[in-house]
Design brief:
- The complex is a heterodimer of chains A (about 425) and B (about 140).
- Chain A is mostly helical and about 425 residues long.
- Chain A is built from 17 helices and 4 strands.
- By secondary structure, chain B is α+β, with helices and mostly antiparallel strands.
- In chain B, a hairpin with a 2-residue loop joins strand 10 and strand 11.
- The chains are: A mainly alpha (about 425), B alpha+beta (about 140).
Chain lengths: ~425, ~140
């Protein structure tokens, strides 16, 4: 641990922030029995304490991102446990713990870019396997796999893998090959193919809300390729690429099937079917005002997807616009941490940019969609909305940011052949 | 909602803000400790020419004439993308990435070589010294 004093004060202030929220629940919340509040307090403060005890065993140099994640996750636990009346949302609590575990996994796996660059083919294979799983088990009208006791959304796990694919391929920009008279980098072509396939799959599954997130991850990777000194992108290439993307977007909107166009241009106040959630969400925001009606006092929990698609409005209604905006700010702060402690390699910088792009776009789609400023997509706010797959995938992505904060620069140990190993043992 | 409850809401929001601020400050203090860790990884080296010194603060550093190079040497004898410095396990190496005038380390033409303290690197007409970082007042 580099700074025990900073560690201690971070722990104390995270507990104070959660304590203040829980006191607010106790004073203003809608609960039948005080035991419900005590259970919630025990779960939240217990998780905080357990995390502070466990974290030093990981022996990393930086902790700020992990504490920020814990702050957001337990805020989310309190929000979700208060919707429609105070009681601990055990499912959300467990998925929160799963997100913390996946963050650790993401951090450990991504710290050393030389190690993961050796394994980048597994990243591509992982994306391919997930697409096959979507093709075989989800079908063209769904994005979920129902296991009976739980449902999984495989497309969520493509997001961290795509970020990794962008990051691991950035160091190959100098390895250009002549193909049909053009200097091309094979990995750029592979990456473009992967993104195009993923976006087409999302279109096929009718999960159009996720397309901007994938496009944003790829766009951030592409932009960093331009910034990468070895890339040597010419202005002409960039103008052609930009024009192609703009043309593809226009063509997609023109040729979009009717169900997409219906979603793009909805008069929510006159359309009872497509505009119901948004009208209720807007009314909820207005009724909540700056400080909200009080935890558990809202009516939005009667609307479909109150805990995921319109979660921002539900928070606004119960906790107030001020608190909801601060929640969004916390998410922006966690993805902006690399600005305070900048990464020291292009790989880590690309990874952080990809995660930042994905989180920002997801938040923007959810919040602006709820407020009827853009078409309603049903994309989740990372960590705040309910949903196990989203939580675990977002945890992995925050693990990547944590990895960029305390990176490792070591060459992986060379693999020993079996013959060498036998010789040594004999 | 009563005024007491409003105060409680505002206090909870303020506590959240202060916590975020504390975590940002913690991250800033980690940045300083990360700098120390980086000086160990990079063996605390720097590149210097007659006029100025260049800190080596990344694991891959491009030297060239182009504006996007990490270390920019505005000299026509230096290629736009001339050489790449890399560090692994505290060992720095320099690699020629297709320059016209090549790289000379201590007067010897090289393609890829490990660098040691006080090595003199010649890129076109420019001479750089690879040396231990010196504290600036």
């Amino acid at each position: 641990m580099s700074n025990p004093v900073s560690y201690f004060f971070s722990c104390v202030f995270v507990i104070i922030a959660h304590g203040a929220m829980l006191f607010n629940v106790f004073q203003n919340g809608n609960y039948e029995s005080v035991n419900d509040v005590i259970t919630l307090c025990t779960a939240v403060i217990g998780l905080d304490a357990a995390y502070f005890i466990v974290m030093p065993f990981f022996k990393q140099r930086t902790y700020a991102v992990d504490f920020m994640l814990l702050l957001i996750l337990n805020m989310s636990n309190i929000f979700q446990s208060c919707f429609g009346g105070v009681h601990l949302d055990l499912k959300h609590f467990i998925t929160g713990i799963a997100a913390l575990v996946s963050c650790r996994i993401g951090c450990i796996a991504c710290r050393n870019h030389r190690w993961i660059q050796d394994k980048k083919k597994f990243v591509w294979v992982g994306i391919g396997v997930l697409m096959i799983v979507i093709f075989l088990f989800c079908g063209s009208r769904s994005m979920w796999i129902d296991l009976g006791f739980m449902t999984i959304q495989p497309s969520e796990f493509i997001k961290p893998l795509l970020v990794l694919a962008c990051a691991t391929s950035i160091s190959e920009q100098q390895n250009k090959h002549k193909v049909l008279g053009f200097n091309v980098v094979y990995e750029n072509l592979i990456l473009f193919g992967i993104v195009a396939a993923v976006i087409l799959f999302q279109w096929w599954c009718r999960d159009l809300g996720s397309i901007p997130t994938f496009a944003a991850i790829y766009a951030s990777g592409f932009l960093l390729r331009i910034c990468y000194p070895k890339a040597k992108f010419s202005k002409k290439t960039l103008i052609i690429a930009g024009s192609c993307v703009a043309a593809a977007g226009i063509v997609a909107v023109i040729l979009a099937p009717p169900y997409v166009k219906d979603r793009l241009f909805v008069d929510i106040w006159n359309d009872d079917v497509n505009g119901y959630q948004q009208t209720k969400a807007l009314i909820g925001i207005a009724e909540g005002g700056w400080f909200g009606k009080g935890p558990g006092e809202g009516f939005l929990h009667n609307v479909v997807a109150y805990e995921s698609d319109i979660v921002f409005s539900t928070i606004c209604e119960e906790w107030g616009l001020l608190y909801a905006l601060m929640t969004a700010l916390m998410l922006l702060v966690i993805v902006a941490m690399p600005l305070v402690n900048p990464p020291r390699s292009y790989y880590h910088a690309t990874m952080c940019a990809g995660v930042c792009a994905a989180f920002t776009v997801q938040m923007a789609l959810n919040i602006f969609g709820s407020c009827n400023m853009i078409p309603f997509t049903g994309v989740t706010i990372p960590f705040i909305s309910a949903g196990g797959s989203s939580m675990v995938a977002s945890g992995l992505m925050i693990g990547m940011i944590a990895a960029a904060q305390s990176p490792v620069f070591k060459n992986p140990k060379p693999k020993k052949s079996r013959k060498q190993a036998k010789r040594r043992t004999s | 909602m009563g005024s007491m409850n409003l105060i409680l809401c505002a206090a909870a929001a303020a506590a959240l803000d202060i916590c975020a601020l504390v975590l940002i400050l913690a991250s800033y203090s980690e940045r300083r400790s990360e700098r120390k860790a980086w000086s160990k990884i990079s063996a605390d080296m720097e590149l210097a020419d007659q006029n100025r010194s260049y800190a080596l603060e990344c694991d891959e550093i491009l030297i060239g004439r182009h504006a996007s190079a990490d270390i920019r040497l505005p000299d026509m004898s230096v290629s736009r993308y001339h050489a790449m410095l890399n560090v692994t396990d505290g060992k720095w190496t320099i690699t020629d990435i297709g320059s016209k005038s090549g790289i000379y380390v201590n007067g010897v033409h090289v393609q890829h070589v490990r660098l040691y303290d006080n090595d003199i690197i010649t890129l076109g007409n420019r001479r750089l010294i690879f040396r231990k970082r010196r504290e600036r007042n």
